[in-house]
Amino acid sequence: MRAARLSVVTAVAMATALTAVTACTSKSGDDDGERVIAVTATDSKCETSKKEISAGHVELAIENKGSKVTEVYILFPDDRVVSERENIGPGTKQRVTAEVKAGAYEIACKPGMKGDGIRQELKVTGGSAAERDPRLDKAVAAYRSYAQAQADETLPKVATFVAAVKAGDLEAAKKAYAPSRIGWERTEPVAESFGDIDPKVDVRADGLEAGQKWTGWHRLEKALWQDKKIGAEEKTLADQLVTDLTDWQKRVGKAEITPTSMANGAKELLDEVATGKVTGEEERYSHTDLVDFKANVEGAQKSYELLKPVAQENDPALVTELDKQFAALNALLDAYRPNATSYEFTSYDKVGAADRKKLSDGVNALAEPLSKLAAAVAK
User: Fold this and answer.
1) Cβ-based neighbour number of residue 320 at 10 Å
2) What is the pTM of this model?
3) C-alpha 125: how far from its chain's center?
4) d(CA 111, CA 334)
5) In sequence order, which ranges of the chain are alpha helices (DSSP H)?
6) 286 falls in which pLDDT band (50, 70, 90)?
């Protein structure tokens, strides 16, 4: 989960009309330079070089000139996420490729990665459709099925967790907690794209917006490991978790998924690891961070493997590097579990600073080439 989320604006009718492309569009006369929007982020501004662009692939060239870590989003009118790039440090630059069709959007910068962000309008004009590589259509369809399967498989595991909470069985609830989160963590960018579900089920105490009630997994995690008690409120929150995740399960099939959103989502999952799991902030009470860590890597690797045939043709050197870094990171994680099929990982509070540094280095070594995957499949 992110440290903080964008608030949700209800505009379902507009959002339905302004869906992300499911087929590539031509450049409509634009050359490569005209497909780039420079985004300059500071602690108080979000400046964009263009307010209008034709439909198709667009690249954000982001520079953070502020003193705070920031995030940059392309958003639908209802705040659903078209594409994003998190964890952009002060003085650093990032590039992100996305797909948009004709309609109205916003580009948002979030200094400090909190709040609604500083926003600029983006108008996307029409473009003529161009045929997309059928392998990419196949990849999108396969990923959609994967995301739905993860949601479907999560609900029974959550039911086991919730049953233990409602029975007041502290130890059984602890045992069921981490397994109930694996499917969510594998496909988190899809859930986050809706805007309103993630803050209900996966927010931490320090990620709450003003006036927001703390609900979801981490509120229950605190009760189980820190408070060591299950009361009437926790049992009610457990029921609410099932309701909210059932909503997620029903909406996964309607998610806007494109080849570039798959690629960017893989990078987002590595950002999740870097900003939450490696630091130990995500599962600060249960210390089950390595379970989430592995699930994030698995989700990123699934997107990559589905896009790999096209990426291999367009950028074989990138594929070679990604294969190498995925293998290296998975090998590092395997050292913390009894076998390659187990999800019983070492408690993260038992992982020392030197080993955490190795894991962090492994994440960074993969994240850098993974940030180039969207551009590789968009060629």
Assistant:
1) 12
2) 0.81
3) 28
4) 36
5) 12-17, 134-166, 170-177, 182-186, 188-192, 198-201, 217-221, 232-251, 259-272, 289-314, 316-334, 353-370, 373-377
6) very high
